[in-house]
């Protein structure tokens, strides 16, 4: 409620005794662009969420020791895992690693396309989270808390920065999954609803079956002319009532929201319409192949939304038909990781290439990662269990070092040992890259100020470009 | 491991103090300072460990003590610096051996740490001492019965409430707004009390009633309507963070949650005294069973207040999960009933309020002694459902479920035996079939061969266990041999067909339900032996008999129950691994004092319930009176209704709040009586008209210089829309989701029922925490996960899109626009139906012009016209 009050308060200040002139400022109360705490390169985020947890030692964090000790027991007491009963001995990676680019960053043969971008990547090998189960881990990655309901990071970012384009939602998540936290992953929690993410489609839904990217975007019975005619009448009536209440700020804001909605009707379908993309572009993203077309669609959409200044864009590799359990390879690591990597590798490489070609990579922070990694010990013989104690994510783009490796795990890949990057630290660093001080981005709720990073979080300054 | 105690530290080494001092200062402290204290200091305390002081060392790390005096083998510090376990410190590299030896010798000699002057006196005070400011904080003080303030304008006040309001207005040289017109007042009162606009007959009756009691009669009528409980029950359900699923990770359904929702609605309708309502929700299961009932049904259901919180049911750290549940209950009960954010004291003493971790864990002790889940084990812990029948009936039902399962298991066993027989029969020809997929072999059964073809068909999946076969079909013989060996091994070791570490994946795939060696589908019976077929038939007949004799499924509630009382300790920094001092079950001492009767038996919930219901407790009446005020006047007298603590706001009219709270208690905690008190006032009956002066001097309307306008809630929006074409279904109660028991479906199955698919009142739609219907999130419902004190009112484009484009609105508009009649009459009807008031002459003219100039067919014009009214502020706002 205090938000509402604050808003009214703010609106009143902006709008005292105004006519139509003050309206732009009115709208700004919640979503208009805000000045960051300090200048920063990153204007927006594209977060590639790899649900299920990709294995670090099979992708970006090679562990020769596992080859040597393959089949031997782990030489120390293992921590709590998810599948307590079915873990076994050390399991070497079935994939070969090679060094790529000027930087010589090692990447496994799972990512033949992405490895060509080695020199763009800033690989963080020392991620740490607090949950061994998907639900808690996924919530923590998205909201900072594995226990309580908190606003999602995209909501915090929009709360902090507003948006440059009010004709589109400021925060969009493509095809998110409903399991493991569901809509909490993109909810605004106790932040005002204006900051919540807009879900386009859902995990498991084929991308070409998403008929209406945003609900209620199309009028079912009226032509644009008719609708404009109707809208003019609505506005006339609502203006009369706003006048009757001495330009009540909420009523004035409502008039603006209709104009914005009208514009969104035109702009949003255009944003989601791929017909103007060339065949070459579509092929680059893998839209022509059944393995890659779904994630490729998401990646291409991410570029289009980035072009349109959507502030926080999340795309999701989710569980579902055709994907089974995604990265969550409790058994059959080879089969599941091979396929999942195949589905995302080319599209992600295309996204990086394309962002660069459009001059967007320098202002876009790309983050790739799952809710945790996987254990160096086998589960069920040929799989790996969850490992939140040391795993890999990577960043690319605005503000981060290129061709850089940050942090390290122990020689087995179980624990982060150097430059540990807790999820709170990741959030602090992401906010920093956007020009926001995580300790100052607060919201008062129920009598105390809250942050995305709770009472923790350190910016990983070593990886800043 | 034993925590190194102060006695051990300081007494045992007293004799050798001077040399120990020197050893510590010369050898040990430099290592700690140089190697450890950068992270493990008083400020950062990485992992909860502070190695800059004796007390820090004694406290240990979040994971427990780090040094056991004299015990080299069990001192974690030595293991960690020795790189002997997975945690290796310092992380930058192992210490030189000499330094490790020094530390070992230090631990061996008792881990002596010289006392610092400021540390010697650091023994905990026996009693918490509160400052005067804390003790006399406004909300902790006993309720006062203030005298009514004197006012200049003697005509305006018609209720004591008005005197308090007017006194403040007069002090600011403001005057209250004129009375609202009767139509506006009736619409306001109807929406405020029932969530629905008045019907045409009710409007006519009120307009015709010229008596001074006309409005009082309206209020009585509305309070007597069952719609009242549906509206005001929903207020409480917000506060109680009611939902139909666990949210958090797995979002399991609470299949019986609706009973709690109905209980709340019924309690408001029945005007159950508020303190009784509170008592039931904390400990209804422990209250006396009403005569003639087997169990206290309503009481058990009422504890859904505690049971229906979000739960991380798949959390593997079961202790953390359990205490998260306890914490959630402290949080919701604290905020909802006491208006205190007690759960802030889980990890440290409350930063603002005089609530200590000891207070917190004293309360935690109560909820930790309460049954929260049926089973806390396995991957996903099991929810607890309380049967609402006498124990023998519930036991019989469970026993019957057991018999059913046992019989089914017998059948399954025989089928499994047949499956093994099928495999044994097929195994000798396994290689032949594999080869048969590549080279035609007419001797093979085509149906069975087709299953092998399907299985072995190469896909873009990598299946390493089939590589040998793809490379050389000659390996088929090897596959056959391995299959037979694996089957024999499993037979011998009595293993099933589940894939286990190191197993042959080929085997498990082939015999799995989709594999070629599972029983042939669609008619496995054809393969069964005569004996097996007979046995299955017999057992199925028995199963049928058992089913036929099934006792009806008893009703269940999502509730809590008594459990083994625990001996709770404070958890340092909230970590269950770091146990501090033991606590008694008791209530926060700032409110309940130090001398509380000892709770010797049971969980203590009943005692807690009684304390919360005690009129001497100053908070519950204040907090609820404030919520009632907020429900009628838009904002509370305290605008942080869940936080009456130091960080919350102070009341705008403290005397009025105390007067209301005292009045509430005097009138037997009757909520309905409070509505009368609030509504039969000039303050409630004012117009919402505002002047520039009022806007300037009373910008936030804290002084109530006019009636506040508000947007309809999502429930009011949807219910009003359904009312427009008469499709609103006023059936009360029950569940809209079929079936009992839990479900664990993923993705699509997790969606809430789409609001458009039902015409019941919105309060009855199920609320799936992980996926609230978009209509709810669109119109600021909140998140049903933490106690919601106030709905926010945002104004964003997607809401406008809903009005402009949703089918739900369009259907209503079309239905209204389709009515017969001449244009002017239809225009009047539409205004009346949608906005509940006749149009002004100007509006009639505008509407007729609109219709005649509409760029399209007449029918569409009427639909469009009706939609303009629905999209107008006059529909969406309450003035």
Question: What would you note in describing this structure?
Answer:
- The complex is a heterodimer of chains A (465) and B (879).
- Chain A is 31% helix and 17% strand.
- Chain A has eleven helices and 18 strands.
- Chain A has a single domain, classed as Alkaline Phosphatase, subunit A (3-Layer(aba) Sandwich).
- The relative contact order of chain A is 0.21.
- Helices cover 48% and strands 3% of the residues of chain B.
- Chain B has 39 helices and ten strands.
- Among the domains of chain B are: 6-120, no CATH class; 160-226 and 649-697, no CATH class; 392-548, no CATH class; 802-878.
- In chain B, the strands form five sheets. In chain B, strands 1-6 form a two-stranded antiparallel sheet.
- Chains A and B meet through helix 1, helix 4, helix 6, helix 7 and helix 10 of A and helix 17, helix 33, helix 34, helix 37 and helix 38 of B.
What structural keywords apply?
heterodimer; A: 465 residues; alpha/beta; Alkaline Phosphatase, subunit A; nine-stranded mixed β-sheet; three-stranded antiparallel β-sheet; 31% helix; globular; B: 879 residues; mainly alpha; two-stranded antiparallel sheet
Chain pair forming the biggest interface: A-B, 119 and 110 residues
Strand composition percent of chain A: 15-25%
SS-derived structural category of chain A? alpha/beta
Give the tally of structural domains of chain A.
1
- Please give the largest β-sheet of chain B: 2 strands, antiparallel
Q: Span from first to last CA of chain A?
A: 40 Å
Assigned CATH superfamily of chain A: Alkaline Phosphatase, subunit A
């Amino acid at each position: 409620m205090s938000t509402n009050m604050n808003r009214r308060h703010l609106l009143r200040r902006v709008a005292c005794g105004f006519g139509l002139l003050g309206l732009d400022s009115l709208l700004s109360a919640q979503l208009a662009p805000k000045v960051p705490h300090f200048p920063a390169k990153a204007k927006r985020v594209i977060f590639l969420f790899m649900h299920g947890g990709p294995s670090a030692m099979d992708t970006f964090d090679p562990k020769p020791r596992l080859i040597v000790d393959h089949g031997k027991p782990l030489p120390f007491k293992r921590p709590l895992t998810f599948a307590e009963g079915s873990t076994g001995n050390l399991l070497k990676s079935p994939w070969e690693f090679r060094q790529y680019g000027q930087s010589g960053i090692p990447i496994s043969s799972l990512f033949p396309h992405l490895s060509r971008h080695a020199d763009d990547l800033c690989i963080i090998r020392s991620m740490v989270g607090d949950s061994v189960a998907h639900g808690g881990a996924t919530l923590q990655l998205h909201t900072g808390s594995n226990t309580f309901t908190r606003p999602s990071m995209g909501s915090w970012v929009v709360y902090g920065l507003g948006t440059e384009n009010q004709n589109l939602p400021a925060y969009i998540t493509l095809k998110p999954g409903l399991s493991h936290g569901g809509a909490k992953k993109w909810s605004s929690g106790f932040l005002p609803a204006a900051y919540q993410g807009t879900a386009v489609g859902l995990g498991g839904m084929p991308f070409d079956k998403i008929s209406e990217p945003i609900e209620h975007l199309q009028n079912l019975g009226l032509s644009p002319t008719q609708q404009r005619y109707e809208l003019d009448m609505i506005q006339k009536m609502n203006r009369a009532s706003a006048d009757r209440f001495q330009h009540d700020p909420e009523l004035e804001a409502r008039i603006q929201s209709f104009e914005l909605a009208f514009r969104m009707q035109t702009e949003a379908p255009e944003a989601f319409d791929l017909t103007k993309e060339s065949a070459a572009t579509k092929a680059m993203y893998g839209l022509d192949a059944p393995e890659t077309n779904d994630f490729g669609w998401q990646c291409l959409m991410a570029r289009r939304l980035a072009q349109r200044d959507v502030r926080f864009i999340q795309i999701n590799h989710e569980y579902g038909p055709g994907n089974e359990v995604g990265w969550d390879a409790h058994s059959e690591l080879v089969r599941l990781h091979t396929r999942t990597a195949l589905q995302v590798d080319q599209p992600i490489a295309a996204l990086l290439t394309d962002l660069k070609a459009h001059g967007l990579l320098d202002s876009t922070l790309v983050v790739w990662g799952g809710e945790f990694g996987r254990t160096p010990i086998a589960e069920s013989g040929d799989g790996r269990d969850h490992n939140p104690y040391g795993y890999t994510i990577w960043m690319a783009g605005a503000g981060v070092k290129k061709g850089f490796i940050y942090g390290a795990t122990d020689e087995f890949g179980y624990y982060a040992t150097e430059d540990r990057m807790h999820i709170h630290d990741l959030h602090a660093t992401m906010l920093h890259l956007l020009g926001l001080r995580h300790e100052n981005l607060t919201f008062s709720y129920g009598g105390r100020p809250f942050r995305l990073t709770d009472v923790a979080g350190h910016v990983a300054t070593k990886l800043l470009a | 491991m034993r925590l190194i105690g102060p006695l051990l530290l300081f007494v045992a080494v007293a004799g050798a103090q001077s040399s120990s001092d020197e050893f510590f200062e010369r050898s040990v402290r430099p290592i700690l300072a140089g190697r450890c204290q950068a992270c493990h200091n008083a400020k950062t305390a990485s992992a909860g460990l502070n190695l800059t002081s004796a007390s820090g060392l004694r406290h240990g790390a979040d994971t427990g003590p780090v040094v056991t005096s004299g015990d080299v083998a069990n001192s974690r510090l030595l293991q960690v610096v020795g790189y002997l376990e997975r945690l290796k410190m310092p992380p930058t590299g192992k210490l030189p051996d000499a330094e490790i030896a020094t530390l070992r010798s230090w631990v061996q000699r008792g881990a002596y740490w010289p006392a610092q002057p400021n540390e010697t006196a650091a023994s905990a005070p026996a009693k918490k001492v509160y400052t005067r400011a804390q003790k006399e904080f406004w909300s902790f003080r006993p309720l006062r019965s203030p005298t009514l303030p004197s006012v200049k304008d003697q005509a305006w006040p018609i209720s004591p409430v008005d005197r308090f309001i007017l006194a403040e207005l007069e002090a600011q040289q403001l005057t209250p707004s004129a009375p609202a017109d009767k139509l506006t007042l009736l619409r306001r009162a109807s929406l405020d009390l029932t969530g629905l606009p008045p019907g045409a007959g009710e409007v006519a009756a009120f307009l015709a009633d010229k008596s001074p009691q006309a409005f009082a009669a309206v209020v009585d009528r509305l309070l007597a309507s069952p719609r009242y409980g549906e509206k005001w029950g929903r207020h409480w359900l917000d506060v109680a963070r009611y939902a139909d699923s666990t949210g958090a990770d797995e979002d399991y359904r609470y299949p019986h949650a609706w009973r709690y929702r109905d209980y709340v609605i019924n309690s408001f309708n029945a005007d159950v005294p508020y303190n009784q309502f509170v008592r039931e929700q904390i400990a209804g299961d422990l209250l006396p069973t009403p005569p003639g009932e087997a169990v206290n049904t309503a009481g058990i259901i009422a504890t859904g207040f505690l049971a229906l919180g979000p739960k991380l049911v798949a959390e593997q750290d079961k202790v953390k999960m359990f205490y998260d549940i306890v914490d959630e209950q402290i949080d919701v009960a604290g905020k909802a009933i006491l208006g205190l954010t007690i759960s802030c004291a889980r990890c440290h003493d409350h930063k603002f309020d005089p609530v200590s971790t000891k207070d917190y864990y004293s309360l935690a002790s109560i909820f930790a002694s309460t049954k929260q889940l049926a089973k806390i084990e396995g991957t996903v812990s099991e929810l607890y459902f309380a049967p609402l029948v006498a124990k023998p009936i519930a036991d019989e039902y469970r026993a019957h479920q057991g018999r059913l399962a046992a019989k089914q298991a017998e059948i399954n066993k025989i089928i499994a035996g047949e499956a093994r027989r099928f495999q044994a029969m097929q195994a000798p020809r396994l290689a032949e079939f594999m080869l048969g997929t590549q080279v035609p072999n007419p001797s093979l059964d085509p149906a069975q061969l087709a299953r092998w073809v399907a299985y072995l068909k190469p896909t873009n999946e990598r299946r390493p266990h089939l590589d040998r076969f793809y490379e050389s079909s000659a390996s088929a013989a090897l596959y056959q041999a391995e299959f037979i060996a694996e089957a024999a091994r499993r037979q011998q070791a009595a293993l099933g067909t589940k894939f286990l570490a190191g197993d042959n994946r080929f085997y498990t795939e082939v015999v799995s339900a989709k594999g070629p060696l599972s029983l042939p589908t669609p008619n496995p019976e054809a393969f069964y032996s005569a004996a097996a077929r007979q046995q299955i038939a017999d057992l199925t007949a028995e199963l049928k008999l058992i089913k036929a004799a099934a006792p009806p499924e008893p009703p269940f509630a999502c509730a809590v129950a008594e459990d083994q009382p625990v001996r709770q300790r404070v958890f340092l920094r909230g970590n269950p691994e770091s146990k501090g001092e033991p606590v008694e079950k008791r209530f926060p001492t700032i409110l309940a004092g130090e001398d509380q009767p000892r709770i010797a038996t049971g969980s203590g919930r009943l005692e807690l319930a009684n304390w919360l219901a005690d009129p001497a407790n100053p908070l519950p009446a204040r907090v609820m009176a404030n919520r009632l005020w907020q429900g009628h006047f838009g904002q509370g007298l305290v605008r942080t209704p869940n936080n009456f603590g130091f960080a919350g706001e102070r009341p705008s009219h403290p005397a009025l709040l105390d007067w209301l709270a005292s009045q509430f208690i005097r009138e037997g905690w009757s909520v309905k009586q409070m509505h009368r008190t609030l509504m039969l006032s000039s303050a409630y009956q004012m117009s919402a008209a505002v002047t520039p002066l009022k806007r300037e001097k009373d910008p936030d309307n804290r002084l109530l210089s006019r009636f506040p306008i508000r947007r309809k809630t999502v429930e009011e929006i949807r219910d009003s829309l359904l009312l427009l074409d008469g499709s609103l279904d006023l059936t009360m109660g029950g569940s809209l989701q079929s079936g009992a028991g839990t479900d664990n479906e993923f993705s699509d199955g997790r969606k809430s029922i789409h609001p458009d698919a039902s015409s019941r009142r919105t309060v009855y739609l199920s609320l799936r925490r992980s996926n609230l219907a978009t209509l709810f999130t669109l119109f600021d419902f909140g998140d049903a996960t933490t106690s919601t004190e106030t709905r926010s009112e945002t104004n964003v484009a997607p809401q406008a899109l809903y009005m402009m484009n949703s089918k739900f609105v369009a259907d209503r508009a079309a239905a209204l626009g389709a009515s017969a009649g001449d244009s002017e009459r239809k225009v009047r009807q539409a205004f009346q139906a949608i906005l509940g008031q006749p149009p002004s002459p100007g509006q009639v003219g505008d509407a007729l012009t609109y219709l005649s100039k509409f760029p399209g067919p007449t029918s569409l014009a009427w639909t469009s016209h009706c939609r303009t009214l629905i999209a107008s502020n006059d529909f969406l706002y309450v003035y």
